[in-house]
Structure formats: structure tokens, C-alpha cells
Predict the 3D structure of the following.
Amino acid sequence: MSNTEWPLWEVFIRSKQGLDHKHVGSLHAADAQMAIENARDVYTRRMEGVSIWVVESKYVHASNPAEAGALYDPANDKAYRHPTFYHLPDEVKHM
Amino acid sequence: MERDFEEIFQDKIDQEIKIEPKDWMPEKYRQTLIRQISQHAHSEIVGMLPEGNWITRAPNLRRKAILIAKVQDEAGHGLYLYSAAETLGITRDEMYAQLHSGKAKYSSIFNYPTLSWADIGAIGWLVDGAAIMNQVPLCRSSFGPYARAMVRVCKEESFHQRQGFEILLTLGKGTEAQKRMAQDAINRWWWPSIMMFGPTDDESPNTIQSMKWKIKRFTNDELRQKFVDVCAEQIKILGLTIPDKDLKWNESTGHYDFGKINWDEFWQVVQGNGPCNKQRLETRKKAWEEGAWVREAASAYAEKRKQKQVVTAA
Ligand SMILES: [Fe+2]
Ligand SMILES: [Fe+2]
């Protein structure tokens, strides 16, 4: 028993009302309740947050960096998805 | 194939593209980082001990609250860094085991005792000051999790140094006895502090590779010189002196010259023969062993609650 590590949790913090939760780091805790309490002490000692999410790290699925090329390639040649692609006369206002 | 990977890797580094945990990296890069980050984490944790020694004896409530907050920050720094190291594939328990067995090192500075309240001032000013000098460039370290942890650490360190300087400033303006106490603390902490930057450049063979990989941005001697230059000016404001008769402004180099460092002492302390090495390690081991039942109880409680949830769900 004493040789079992507490599971690892990823911590996400909303820095203020209206903003997204952002990943800030990870920590070990026996359960979700303890993970939130530890996250409070480790990651919000200076009012860095108004809301905490914790997710056990084993439940995070990530894309494979080795496949990044193929994965993001479809977006690569579609400059027309950006507003700067379109050349309009300067007289056009508010667009 | 390996060769290609290594070229792509170095190319990313040269372009200042951060390396993230799942990216390919040379084994030596991984091992170097594990060693450096875990050593750094251990230093934060062991570093709580000399200062913790004065929490109950802080001269007033303000100082006590500040010292508690500072020591708690150091615990936080240790935790950020352990997590960063874990992304490289070592477990927290393995790192603790390496610390407890003496296989992993921590900063030698924490093997010196804190004999008076003024030591808390000297540690804040000099030890945290040297740490900051080291850590600011690490915010741009090539390994993403390490760099991000260091950004957080550096944001918090600034108050550590300022509170230490304030302690010395107050003592320096106090009675003769208080002044003597402040000077004595600086006398004892100065040399170990400038040793914190590590051996001279020609004695640190790993520096070249670490700089090529952008784990390190400046050499030990460069950082040490910067620190000496800053302190040589700050001491004037304290109205105290740095215990080095060779400390002198050098017009031609634009830096302060300083005296010879006692590297024998440095290596003695690294090898375990400093004044407090034994005591520090024993304290850490005791905390780990005596905390075992808490870790077990929390695991058992979490397990029990999980079982209950399963039953109610069924
Ligand atoms: Fe720290
Ligand atoms: Fe600090």
C-alpha cells in the first residue's frame, strides 16, 4: 500500500469570471476533492483563480506530435479562411 | 534514422521552438533535464528547512506571516518542478527515493545552519537573490514544462529577495548589536552564496552541451559575475560590508573583481561533509516515513468512497 503513488491530476484554472479555464500544471492527490484542495494551495496562493478543474491525467487523450504534419496539413493551404486574404478598396469602411 | 531525429531536434532548438514532453528528444537531453529539474525540486524542498527553523521565533507577527508565506512558496516551487520532471518519465516516488538515498543532490547552500534571525535576511537577499539570477534565464529554457514552471517560480521569488533585504535594512539601522548580527550573517552567507552558481566554467564540462540545447543560457561564471556586480552595489544601501577584501570595481572590465573562492569547501559540502548535510537528509527521510500512514489512509479513504459510488450507481 505504501508503495502506491497517489494518482496524478491535471489542474485547470479560470483566472477570472468570463475567461476559459487554462492548464496550469499537475499534482498528486488521493481523490478529486483532495486534488482541488491541493490545487488551491499550490496554484492559487495569489488570487490566480476563481474556479478550479481537476482531471485525472490518465483520462487526458492527446494528439501525437509525430503526426502533427499530417493532422494539421488540411488547414495549411486555406488562406482564404482568414479575413486578410481579401483585398477590398480602402473606401470600404466598417468591414 | 536516429541521426535525422537529432538534426530535426537541434533545428527546433536553434529556432527557439520549445520541446514538449511527447516530442522526440535525445536520451541524454532527457537524462540531463531529469537530473537538473529534480535536483532543483529537491533544493526547493530541502531549502524550507533552514528557514522553517525560524518560523516560531520570528521577531513579530508581520515577519512571521511573511516567513510562513515564503516557506510555503518554496514548497510550491518544489511541486511545480517535480511535476515538470515527471513529464519526462520519472515518477515522484523515484525522485524522492533518489533524494533520500543521497543519489540525487540538492543545492549545497542548504547544508549551512541558520544561527540567528539575521540569517533569514541574508538568505532572502543572497540565497534567493542568487537563485533568481540562475532562474530568470531558465524561464527561456528549451523544455516547455520546465520553462513554464520557472515563469511561475520567478514571479514569486521577487518578494522573497525583497523581504530579506528589508530585514537586513532594518537590522542595519538598529542597535549596534543588531548591526553586528546582520554583518555576521552576511559574513557567513556571502561565500556559500556565490558558490551556488557552481564550479568555474573550465570545471563544468557539461555546460557546453547544455548551452547548445538551450537548457542553460549563461555559464556559471557569467551568472556569478552578474550577481557579484549587483550585490556590490546593494550592500552600500545596507551600510554593511561584503567579506571580501579583493572586491573592487574594475574600470577596464566594467565589472567588480572578487577574491578567490574556496572550492575545497564547496566540494566538501557537495560530498556530504557540510555542517548540516546529515541533519537535512534525516529530517526529509523522517517526514517521508512518518507521513506514510497519512498517504495510506488517504488512499484507503478514496478507495472506499469509490466503492460506495459504484454501489449507489448500481
Ligand atoms: Fe524557490
Ligand atoms: Fe525563494
Q: What stands out?
A: The radius of gyration of chain B is 22 Å.
